[in-house]
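Reminder to self: tokens first, then the designed residues, so the page reads top to bottom the way the pipeline ran.
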């Protein structure tokens, strides 16, 4: 059994993944920490990358989070969705998306821009990235640990390996030692849609057939492991103060759509639930009856999938 992976923490993680329906710490969200989104190849020839998923020093293997990202004027606005910490949490962006979805065709298109999106993040030791050939020496990434933000289609491959107790690789996919398996990311392009757009296709991505250590000595492996980023701190670093989101929505001329719900939430959060709701509505209601979200979008959204966010994230990296 590998010395690098805590089996009890891994078993707890497996239970969480089996029950997961895919649906301020002073740490800043530094883009230098993040591995740039893998570029897609052609429909016939994928671009190939390789690396090892690694747990952080707290034993977190990977984390799911929700975020909102949209263009406001000439700038991209990016923030963590409060529903990352629980679906009962109030989120102005989710509320706005739900309101827009009840409107006309243009409103529905705008709702997609504001809706929450799902992403996963893990530490990833880079072994193959041909883009290093064009990077300056100080910017090369092969041989270093970066944060890899990946879509649900990649996560499903990890989940399959860790939950299949009969045929899956289990915790070996996170093992940096000679019992560990690297992940080979193969990114093709989908067939063009009617509008000519193409998206990344990760379906050919696989784990290596043979295990291999990421370094030749235990001392080197230990150094790599200590360079992993704390995933909880990273996710918290994406949070934006509610006041900043209010300012953005006012600048986007969207504030009128959510102002009443904001006031209800502020009233609710500053008083006891019973007193606040009695004052606002004249009757007792559940918090869920006060706050809407954009779950309806998750059911009715077209099949672009979360892969379409890769191009958006790439734009963010280039800012």
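Designed residues (319 positions):
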């Amino acid at each position: 059994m590998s010395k690098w992976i805590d089996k009890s923490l891994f078993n707890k993680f497996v239970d969480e993944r089996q029950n997961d329906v895919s649906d301020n710490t002073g740490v800043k969200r530094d883009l230098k920490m993040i591995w740039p989104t893998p570029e897609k190849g052609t429909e016939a020839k994928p671009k190939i990358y390789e690396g090892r998923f690694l747990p952080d020093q707290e034993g977190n293997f990977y984390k799911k989070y929700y975020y909102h990202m949209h263009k406001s004027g000439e700038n991209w606005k990016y923030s963590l969705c409060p529903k990352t910490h629980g679906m009962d949490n109030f989120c102005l962006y989710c509320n706005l998306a739900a309101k827009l979805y009840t409107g006309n065709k243009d409103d529905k298109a705008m709702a997609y821009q504001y809706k929450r999106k799902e992403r996963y993040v893990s530490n990833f030791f880079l072994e193959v990235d041909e883009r290093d050939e064009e990077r300056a020496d100080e910017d090369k990434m092969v041989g270093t640990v970066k944060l890899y933000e990946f879509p649900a289609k990649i996560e499903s491959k990890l989940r399959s390996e860790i939950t299949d107790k009969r045929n899956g690789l289990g915790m070996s996919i996170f093992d940096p030692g000679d019992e560990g398996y690297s992940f080979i990311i193969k990114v093709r392009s989908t067939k063009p849609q009617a509008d000519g757009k193409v998206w990344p296709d990760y379906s050919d991505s696989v784990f290596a057939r043979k295990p291999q250590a990421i370094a030749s000595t235990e001392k080197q492996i230990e150094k790599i492991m200590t360079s992993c980023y704390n995933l909880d701190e990273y996710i918290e670093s994406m949070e934006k103060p509610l006041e900043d989101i209010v300012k953005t929505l006012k600048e986007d001329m969207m504030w009128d759509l959510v102002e009443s719900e904001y006031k209800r939430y502020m009233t609710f959060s500053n008083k006891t639930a019973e007193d606040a709701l009695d004052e606002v509505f004249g009757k007792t209601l559940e918090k869920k009856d006060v706050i809407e979200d954009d779950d309806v979008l998750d059911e009715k959204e077209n099949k672009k999938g979360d892969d379409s966010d890769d191009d958006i994230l790439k734009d963010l990296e280039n800012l």
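Residues 255-270 form the longest helix (16 residues).
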